[in-house]
Design brief:
The protein has 239 residues and is of the alpha/beta class. A hairpin with a 2-residue loop joins strand 11 and strand 12. Helix 1 runs parallel beside helix 3. The longest helix has 13 residues.
Length: 239
């Protein structure tokens, strides 16, 4: 179980890369104590492309990886892997890493229990198959080998594709989609916080309070946990 601390900072969907550098600014401000916190939750898709077995992706983010590793020795950093950043335990040895298979993760705040996730859990059978394939260590090792053989042209093509991809758009019917997603999911209760959808919306699903975090990549947002009569509340901040 994750125990959320007062003042914890949550970041979702920063999609960090050289062409989208905002997340680096946030980390520098936490390191300099301009933003003070003792707990940082990375809610997935923090990097646009970061998969442990793909050397080119790891090498491209060497500087911020080094900063995050130093910071993880000073404060607690919890990383809920997303669909753009996974197989990270070897990259971030001092963080608490939660892969997709362990999500949603039970969490608590001031004794009130809820759940945390990146957001790409569940889905159709075809999506679950796709998720399993892209997280296959064998598949990624083969891809890494091929990328090395062709002088990292494959990884460059991935970056070019992601740079062109439109990631900020409206999700019409989002509340209905989430209500259906949680249908027959009686094991969830209390509160539920996730990212992935880039929406930024809060509402009740039956008696459970659901909060989708706005993507940092879309509106420069991060969130801070603050108490509200012992009920979890998130304040939105922008860089």
């Amino acid at each position: 179980m994750i125990v959320l601390q007062e003042g914890a900072v949550l970041v979702a969907d920063a999609h960090y890369a050289s062409y989208r550098p905002l997340f680096h600014q946030l980390i520098d401000q936490i390191i300099s104590k301009e933003i003070e916190t003792t707990q940082l939750l990375l809610m997935g898709d923090v990097f646009d492309l970061l998969m442990g077995p793909i050397a080119a992706f790891v090498d491209s983010e060497e500087l911020i990886i080094e900063k995050l590793n130093r910071l993880s020795l000073e404060i607690e950093i919890i990383y809920l892997e997303g669909n753009h950043d996974f197989m990270l335990s070897s990259i971030f040895p001092h963080m608490k890493i939660y892969p997709l298979a362990t999500q949603p993760v039970r969490a608590s705040y001031n004794g009130k229990e809820g759940f945390l996730a990146h957001g790409d859990w569940g889905g159709s059978p075809s999506y679950r198959l796709y998720s399993a394939i892209i997280r296959s260590r064998m598949v990624l090792k083969i891809l890494n080998f091929a990328d090395i053989v062709v002088g990292r042209r494959i990884s460059r093509l991935f970056y070019q594709k992601m740079q062109r991809k439109k990631i900020c758009s409206d999700f019409k019917g989002f509340e209905t989609y989430i209500q259906n997603k949680f249908e027959d999911k009686s094991s969830f209760y209390g509160w539920f916080i996730e990212g992935h959808y880039h929406v930024g919306s809060s509402f009740f699903v039956d008696k459970m309070f659901y909060h989708n975090l706005q993507a940092m990549a879309c509106n420069k947002s991060y969130f801070v946990v603050q108490s509200n009569k012992n009920v979890i509340a998130l304040t939105q901040h922008t860089l």
